[in-house]
Amino acid sequence: MILKFILMSTICVSTPVQGVTCHQYLKDHIKNAENCEALATAFGKAHKARLKEIEGAYLYEYKASCLAIGPDGMDIDQTFNISYTIL
User: Fold this and answer.
1) Strand 58-70 to strand 19-30: parallel, antiparallel, or no bridges (unpaired)?
2) Which strand (E) or helix (H) includes residue 46?
3) Model confidence, pTM
4) Which residues of the chain are modeled with pLDDT < 50?
């Protein structure tokens, strides 16, 4: 039985001034796998859209993992990765 999912994501952005920089984000207490995947997709798309406002900036890489947490800890059989590489 899965109690919750945790979304862990890494976003790498390239800008003319800073080059490629990466940041990690964590979202806890997600009810199910479908919500976790939807949040991961929305989060990546939102960051990509914000970058359009910065001249020369773009989303270099986006990786996300939905970690399934059961009564005994992380359930590796139901944990999954979402990865987008945009060059």
Assistant:
1) unpaired
2) helix 33-51
3) 0.85
4) 87
